[in-house]
Amino acid sequence: MSKNNLKGDIPYQLPPNVLHLDLSGNGFTGGAPYSISQMTDLKYLNLGHNKLNGQLSDMFGQLPKLTLMDLSFNRLSGNLPQSFGSLSSLTTLHLQNNQFTGSINVLADLPLNDLNIENNQFTGWIPNALNNIDNIEAGGNSWSSERAPPPPPGASSKNTNTSRSSSNSGKGGGKSGMSGLAIAGVVLGSLLALVILLVLFSRRSSPPPSHFLDEERLSNHRPFTPIVSQELSNDMHPTSYKVVELIQFNGCKGLQKSPSMGLKPPPSLNDLANRLSVKRSTSIRATAYSLADLQSATRNFATASLLGEGSVGRVYKAKYADGKVLAVKKISSSFFQSGQKQGFPEVVSSVSKLRHPNIAEIVGYCSEQGHNMLMYEYFRNGSLHQFLHLSDDFSRPLTWNTRVKIALGTARAIEYLHEVCSPPMVHKNIKSSNILLDAELNPHLSDYGFAACHQRTSQNLGVGYNAPECTKPSAYTLKSDVYSFGVVMLEVMTGRMPFDSSRPRSEQCLVRWATPQLHEIDSLEQMVDPALRGLYPPKSLSRFAEIIALCVQMEPDFRPAMSEVVQSLARLIQGASRRMEDFNY
Where is this region: Disordered (predicted)? Predict the structure, then answer.
């Protein structure tokens, strides 16, 4: 399908059994579809010479047979996804003429013999292993002109970075390195210096959890970079100090405080530390907005700007003079009181790194004067809840195929949180009002990343959505998320609310009413949303109900993993697409 002048987004759901996919030389826009992650037999992928933009999702972990990938001549940006490192058969990779940033260390262990990364915005050094491949083009980037640091002791020599200047064409290049004696000398010298620092600062506080650490600092192959308990502010350049208590190296604990070494820091260093603002490294990947700016855009958070209110806080519409519109979630201050384990910077650091086509991504944040807020893209079509339950007679109802597509996209988002994020992320508040719809009615899951906040509240987090085992906030698990998603699917199928006190008592709880009827085709026809006016394939409806029945089982262990749900819904869509010619479902 190359060179056909095709435009718009690449189809969301691509056939999972494809071996050779060539969409190059068209006018495709948007991002690379996440359904590529399901093409486990894919050997050839060419999306070059299009107008693709944005960051690549971390979706390449299950493509062991891929040998060639060409994403060149697009507008792709951001760091290379870590799942690139799983492309164990990749021999040809063309990324030239994009806007990629960061290091290329993730490519160091791939079996490449043809690599073109020209004309991007890569930084750092090129790993020595990549100098040994047959063909490499790396010019037009911002490679460091300084001498590359040696690898950490014990690291594979093939991962050693080599220094290059920005004018380097990318061909050949020196293979300078350090001898074993030189490396040993550096290590011993570093250890001696760290022993002295340990003695001087032995009374400092314990180190933060590992997820506070700067990811880029840990990935650049720097020599013996200690994991520190606290970092002094960056305005100390060019002379900066790091306060060290517990040193970790290559995942192992190193030097410990000795009870016999009770020395106090010299007064000069102690005074220096007291004058500086000590802070944890959070590596936030979102734009900081000022409180004054948000007050102006929301008309001082006026009631007329209120979009909705959830368990975490209220959401306001922010309109700017240039036409930009954002959704601003103003989080209740009680969630981030002093002394609590997880603060707002840690939440922002965590959620700002998530990238998925069906996730409502964080675009900004604000933390001033006790106000904690997150900014999201504004979706003019509102939420799935509004489409299902608040539409008037003049609104066009969601077709059956659109409903299944929304269910699949939401399932992919939850699968990403559960099975791609590390550690897995429990959403804990999956409901139709947290599924936002864009102009093409693609779903975007929101309100993720607040499980720790919900952990501290006894508030009922969604009447009708809670799994039976969730009698308290701390009881939520990945499988309780699966149950909540099953309830959403029931909403999609029936058009009913999860709990509706206006109905007869036996029908108020949607799951309790629907579950006994999910395996009877005659009952299903009576349960299906009347707004569909009978326009749905009976076989597709029956299989959709079977997936629901698995998700809403009483016992958590009997519920499927989200990856299984995704596969079942994907097969359902493939079957439905073959029947679209007969009806406008």
Answer: 140-175
